[in-house]
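Amino Acid Chain and Its Fold in Token Form
===========================================
What this section holds: a protein sequence and its matching fold, both as plain text.
Structure line: whole-number tokens from a learned vocabulary of local backbone shapes, matched to residues.
Purpose: to set a sequence beside its fold so the mapping can be learned.
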Amino acid sequence: MRVGEELPALEIPVTRTLIVAGAIASRDYQDVHHDASLAREKGSPDVFMNILTTNGLVGRYITDRLGPRSVLRKVAIRLGAPNYPGDTMTLTGTVTALDGDTAEIRIVGTNGIGHHVTGTVTVTLGSAG
């Protein structure tokens, strides 16, 4: 691994089931994450993904790319364009810093309307042995 290296992209289909299941799993019962009618009443075209689900998917992206021995030390993300059902979120990452066995990776997740998530992940790289 080296600074500037780009991790392979991960495409995640954004389904209604993923949005609702992520909200339930993270105990986020806000109606905008599971009830399309109430989401529309509040100005959204549909239900949308919560930040906790996005955070989990960012973590999955890093550990899938760096292996099961990698350990997330810090995840600092910011949401932008909502993830709505029927779209696809594509996560990409670029190594921005290395210090011994610790890497910092810039994360960007895009969907059909823009950047859904941006931020950085600090991860301790696991050994192969």
User: Anything to note?
Assistant: The chain has three helices and five strands. The mean pLDDT is 95. The CA atoms of residues 35 and 47 lie 6 Å apart. The first strand starts at residue 6 and ends at 14.
